[in-house]
Design brief:
This protein has 154 residues and is an all-alpha fold. It has six helices and two strands. The structure holds heme C.
């Protein structure tokens, strides 16, 4: 009897988990997991290299770190030079380009099925936005945290 309860509880957990993930398409989960695997490897290499600018760490990626990175304001710049400056504080919302004022479709994969389906496009956007904001490309650990955060946004 007890075993049956445990089984039901486990099954319930699995169902909840599957539901929570369901807004993000299989394709997005596949691409994002691939990116995470690549960034995990790269982060290990960067951690051993001479320390340059940007965060390096050999710790697992966390959504909280990704959220912090998404919101962090560069002190050497004036204005809203943050990822959230264009993509808004809530990545589920439609953003607005800080210069051109053009609308930007939401970044969160849970509300935008067109995001994170092309690894090359993701990399290109990371590089250009990181150059704009940090004057350097982002570190693998920063990218991994950000992807982890965006995957957690329901
Ligand atoms: C100046 C405005 C602006 C800022 C600041 C900005 N972005 Fe973007 N971002 C855009 C626009 C515009 C697009 C949409 C490009 C498209 O889909 O055609 C985009 C798309 C992306 C994508 C592509 C996702 C996909 O698969 O479609 C990623 C990843 C991204 N941004 C990450 C970031 C990160 C990380 C930061 C902060 C370091 C950042 N962005 C800051 C304007 C900005």
């Amino acid at each position: 009897m007890k075993k049956a309860y445990v089984f039901l509880a486990l099954a319930g957990l699995l169902v909840c988990h599957a539901r929570a993930e369901s807004n993000i398409s299989e394709k997005q989960v596949e691409i994002m997991n691939k990116l995470l695997a690549t960034y995990t490897q790269q982060a290990k290499v960067e951690f051993k290299e001479e320390k340059g600018r940007g965060a390096v760490s050999d710790k697992p990626f966390t959504a909280a770190e990704g959220r912090r990175f998404y919101l962090v304001r560069r002190t050497w710049q004036s204005g809203d030079f943050t990822c959230s400056g264009c993509h808004t504080d809530d990545p589920k919302k439609v953003g607005q380009h800080i210069e051109t004022k053009a609308p930007i479709k939401p970044l969160a994969p849970s509300v935008n099925p067109d995001r994170f389906i092309d690894a090359q496009k993701v990399e290109a956007n990371f590089t250009s936005h990181c150059m704009d904001l940090h004057d350097r490309d982002c570190r693998a650990h920063e990218k991994g945290n950000l992807i982890t955060y965006l995957m957690s946004v329901k």
